[in-house]
Amino acid sequence: MANFSSIVTGLTIFGYWLLIISITIRILSKRRAISSAMAWLLVIYILPIIGIIVWLFFEEFYLGKRRLKLASTMWSKRNKWLNNLKSRNFIFENNNSEVATSVFQLCKHRQGISGIKYNKLKLLKNTKEIIKTLIQDIYLARNNIEIVFYIWKPGGLADDVAIALIRSARRGIKCRIMLDSAGSLEFFRSKWVTMMRNSGIQIVEALKINLYQLFLRRVDLRQHRKFILIDNYITYTGSMNLVDPRLFKKSSKVGQWIDLMIRIEGPVAITMGIVYSCDWEIETGKKIFPKQPKYKIVALPKNNTSAIQIIASGPGFTENIIHQVLLTSIYSARKKIIITTPYLIPSDDLLYAICAAAQRGVQVSLIIPKSNDSILVKWASRVYFSELLESGVKIYQFEKGLLHSKSILIDMQLSLIGTANLDMRSLWLNFEITLVVDDSNFGRDLFLLQNEYISHSKLIDPKLWAIRSYWRKVIEKLFYLLSPLL
């Protein structure tokens, strides 16, 4: 009996170390950032059982075999559609502004198409007005409405959108809605799901969370895109979830969430439709190919270079593209950079790029919310302040709510707006979407909005920050250790 017990113990110890070694090799073979690899190794070796479980659920399974297979083949199936798009040479802009040239060349090389022109852009900053404009477009829709959101929280303004969609579906408009399972949990438990489906609206619960799925993919991989496509011609995208800011997360006591969206009319909607069709196929296995409408050409001012690139990220999409675009944009800056982000956990490369820009004489301003709904991010992000401030970056803390807008303006010309935060999750994990806009008129509008944010913010004094209390520095460092996993 004693011998049997010794054999079982020996096999258990051998199996345990074999698993630890195999995971170690797996971490090192993925060629991830050293900080991230070290964080995972520390977790696994210091808290072995917990570390192994966390690794399996949050790293190894990732997207799941079925979805991953679809994701790896979906773009090849859309080559015909893309070739048809490329045949319309008149919608592409190959002569970009000086600051945007490198970024657009990168996007063309990695995504296969040039920037698209002949688009009418409008920057929207007030949620109530955004919803009002959106509802008008929903009622005017003639063919189809495609929607994807991370969060849809029933109540208030969100219910007005639901009613408009139901009425449009009943008059024959093809409506598809895709919502993240975790982010839109309240919606999927509400009456609206049944009401919408009864009206003919197709609703998909993206990356569904249940016990079965826990063993098939990463549970923290999220569908974080936020965009609406109407008649394959009008599109909305930006930072706003489909919520009423007066009702959303009131218990967090951070004030109303402040967002921005872009409304676009024009051929760039074709590429948005391609992204949506890929997401839909990954979730449902079904192919959808929206019709390509006959576009009205929007007259552009003379001598004005205007073009848009759509950057879509996530499993199956162009790898590391958002990170590369961010770095290229920042290194292209010569005069001014203004960044707004609610969550600041940059990669080392991104941090160094921002600091280097300030050190070479570029005016760099960073606007973040003073109050944050994530205590982990709130404390971990502060570790970066010292290095940024020492480099000459101005850091503004927005005081009139949770500034949720994600925007970057380079030299008043190149704008990046979308769903991606400056954190590891947005840069390398989630399904995100970012618009890269080369347009001086749009840049001016974004500049005015960002300056409005600054007017409601407090500038951090580098001298006062340097003498903050010791216990605050300790807490920041402790949360910083978790930053590669955030």
UniProtKB/TrEMBL annotation:
Any one Gene Ontology molecular-function term assigned to this protein's record: cardiolipin synthase activity
Reactions the enzyme catalyzes: 2 a 1,2-diacyl-sn-glycero-3-phospho-(1'-sn-glycerol) = a cardiolipin + glycerol
Keywords per UniProt: Cell membrane, Lipid biosynthesis, Lipid metabolism, Membrane, Phospholipid biosynthesis, Phospholipid metabolism, Repeat, Transferase, Transmembrane, Transmembrane helix
PLD phosphodiesterase domain span: 219-246, 399-426
EC id: 2.7.8.-
GO CC entries: plasma membrane
Compartment list: Cell membrane
Family note: Belongs to the phospholipase D family. Cardiolipin synthase subfamily. ClsA sub-subfamily.
NCBIfam families from the UniProt entry: bac_cardiolipin (TIGR04265)
PANTHER family, alphabetized: CARDIOLIPIN SYNTHASE, PHOSPHOLIPASE D
Function of the molecule: Catalyzes the reversible phosphatidyl group transfer from one phosphatidylglycerol molecule to another to form cardiolipin (CL) (diphosphatidylglycerol) and glycerol.
Protein name per its UniProtKB record: Cardiolipin synthase A
Organism: Buchnera aphidicola subsp. Melaphis rhois
